[in-house]
Design brief:
Layout lengths: L1 H18 L16 E2 L3 H5 L9 E5 L5 E5 L5 E7 L6 E7 L6 H16 L4 H10 L3 H15 L2 H18 L9 H13 L3 H20 L25 H12 L4 H13 L3 H5 L6 E2 L4 E4 L8 E4 L2 H8 L21 H11 L7 H16 L1 H8 L4 H8 L4 H11 L18
Helix pairs in contact: 5-6, 6-8, 7-8, 10-14, 14-15
């Protein structure tokens, strides 16, 4: 039975070729046949041709829908629409590798209906194809960012660029929906990385804003995704916790990690600055560390305590970086993982590397005031030090107010006089 069907299908294909001789023009145009067949999966199984220009048949079920067979077995779907004065053609895709018969027929019906209602499917498709893929647009955005942004910012954006390319790189800019962006942001949030979720959305919001300015898309999908609430952390380490951390660092076998955390504890530097510190920038004799690339965008000097200089002098140099990676030519990449191990040994709870910076600021502020804390942390604006690094508690505030307003002290009460009896 199966062989009989194949023979019948082959006869149909040959009869189609004999129905009308297909002659290619000098420009090599593909055939515009008027053959009609009910295009089904069974028919496509035996739809073959040896003609160089291919053989095209139109469907009897869907108006304008066609299948073209080429030598070698390729079958490509397309749809023809419009009036006789202006015929239009759209290729829908190749059978098997790009589209199925059912999907191609459904899309053909949509295109014909849109054309009948006065639409312009060809123009719409041309405009859609002009919209770049996110992967390609990110390359252009990175080239533009290199000319306008600091190197420190570019390194942070590179992390989120990889995430965006992994999830949406093959999509056009207009195909990326807010719901899809929200799913990626939620994955950060569920992992406890609330601020990373916000940074990811902020990066993509800047990318899509640039696309809107260039006319690729009409709206910014990242602007519609809600952010996590950000509240300044107030966590500072107690004296006991600092002692436990220092003891855990003393037992750290990796000398580079030990050096990096010594810098963080004693200077209040940022974790990225400690991770990327180079020996050539450290003048251990003078106790000065020159950081060439800072958050402020300019080189800054950090004062290193004498005791910390002595500890750093004893650490062997295994390359240009104080905390080198596996091969020594790059800084260590797994800084956060190592911090969690050290914090676990010191039995620290809910502590981050940046809490070391806040702790030193708080200790300096209590001892020498806000001005010295601001200088130690290298803040251009004192309000930043007060808002993010000041951790005054109620007891300290009450004590300070009592000192500056001595008249608030309760007056001493004298014992009441006893009345004399008459």
């Amino acid at each position: 039975m199966r062989k009989a069907e194949e023979v019948t299908g082959e006869r149909e294909s040959k009869s189609l070729e004999r129905t009308k001789e297909t002659k290619l023009t000098k420009k090599g145009r593909r055939p515009r046949g008027s053959r009609l067949r009910n295009i089904t999966n069974r028919f496509l199984e035996t739809f073959r041709t040896d003609k160089p220009g291919g053989l095209r048949v139109f469907d009897t079920e869907t108006r304008g829908f066609a299948a073209t067979a080429y030598p070698g077995g390729r079958i490509v779907f397309g749809v023809r629409f419009g009036n006789r004065l202006r015929r239009r053609w759209i290729t829908l895709g190749e059978l098997g590798t790009e589209v199925t018969l059912a999907a191609a027929r459904s899309r053909a019906r949509e295109i014909v209906s849109e054309s009948v209602l006065g639409g312009d499917p060809v123009g719409d498709r041309r405009r859609a194809n002009a919209i770049p893929l996110l992967r390609d647009f990110l390359e252009d955005y990175a080239a533009w960012s290199e000319k306008t942004k600091k190197a420190r910012t570019l390194r942070g954006e590179a992390v989120y660029r990889k995430v965006a390319e992994r999830h949406f790189g093959s999509l056009r800019l207009d195909e990326i929906a807010p719901a899809a962006l929200r799913e990626v942001a939620l994955s950060y949030t569920k992992a406890g990385q609330l601020y990373s979720a916000n940074r990811f959305l902020s990066f993509l919001s800047a990318v899509f804003s640039q696309a809107v300015k260039l006319g690729h898309i009409a709206t910014n999908p990242a602007a519609a995704v809600p952010r996590n609430a950000e509240r300044p952390r107030k966590r500072v380490l107690s004296a006991a916790e600092l002692a436990a951390l220092w003891k855990a660092l003393a037992s750290e076998p990796d000398a580079g990690l030990r050096a990096a955390f010594v810098l963080m504890v004693t200077t209040g530097c940022r974790s990225s600055e400690a991770r990327e510190a180079r020996w050539k920038d450290l003048d251990l004799e003078a106790g000065v560390w020159t950081v060439p690339d800072t958050k402020a965008g300019e080189a800054q000097e950090i004062v290193i305590p004498a005791a910390a200089c002595e500890l750093l002098k004893a650490i062997p140099k295994a390359g240009p970086f104080v905390c080198p990676g596996r091969f020594g030519d790059k800084p260590r990449a797994d800084f956060w993982r190592v911090w969690k191990e050290i914090a676990a040994r010191a039995k620290l709870t809910d502590a981050t590397p940046h809490d070391l910076r806040r702790t030193l600021s708080d200790l300096i502020r209590r001892s020498a005031g806000e001005a010295v804390a601001q200088a130690a942390l290298r803040h251009a604006d004192a309000r930043t030090t007060v808002r993010h690094y000041s951790a005054a508690d109620a007891g300290e505030i009450r004590e300070t107010v009592a000192k500056v307003l001595p008249f608030l002290a309760k007056p001493e009460t004298k014992p009441a006089r006893k009345r004399r009896r008459a």
